[in-house]
Each structure stands twice: as C-alpha cells, then as structure tokens.
C-alpha cells in the first residue's frame, strides 16, 4: 500500500534551489498558501 509523508517549508523569495533539492529527494510540491509550501512524497511499508 502506498503511503505519503508530508512536509511544510517556508515559501521564501528565490526558493528555486531549495525546491530543486527537495524534488531530487522525491518531494512533490502540492500547494502554496500564506507563505508556506506543502510537499509530499510516497513511501512504502
């Protein structure tokens, strides 16, 4: 069964480098709201 873990990081100016690193680690950006970016990535038990 596929499960997800979630992460919230601050949405700051010039976040491109951080987002690229998180993408490399398997994180997917799913939402941006009120200065925060929400990401998820799948993992299996």
What's the helix and strand layout?
Layout: E1 2-10, H1 16-24, E2 28-33, E3 36-44
Antiparallel strand pairs: 1-3, 2-3
Describe the model.
With 45 residues, the chain is of the alpha+beta class. The chain has one domain (2-44). 20% of the residues lie in helices and 53% in strands. The chain is built from 1 helix and 3 strands. It has a 3-stranded antiparallel sheet, with helices on one face.
Key traits:
alpha+beta, 1 helix, three-stranded antiparallel beta sheet, 53% strand, 3 strands, flat, 45 residues, single chain
Briefly summarize what is shown.
The protein has 45 residues and is of the alpha+beta class. It has one helix spanning 16-24; strands at residues 2-10, 28-33, 36-44.
Structural class by helix and strand composition: alpha+beta
Q: Which sheet architecture does the biggest sheet show?
A: 3 strands, antiparallel
Q: Residue share in helices?
A: 10-25%
H and E string: EHEE
Radius of gyration: 11 Å
Identify the strand order in the major beta sheet. 1-3-2
User: What is the terminal separation in angstroms?
Assistant: 7 Å
The average pLDDT is 91
Number of strands: 3
Please count the helical segments. 1
């Amino acid at each position: 069964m596929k499960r997800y873990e979630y992460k919230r990081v601050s949405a700051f100016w010039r976040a491109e480098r951080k987002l690229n690193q998180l993408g490399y680690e398997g994180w997917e950006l799913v939402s941006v709201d009120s200065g925060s970016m929400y990401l998820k990535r799948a993992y299996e038990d």
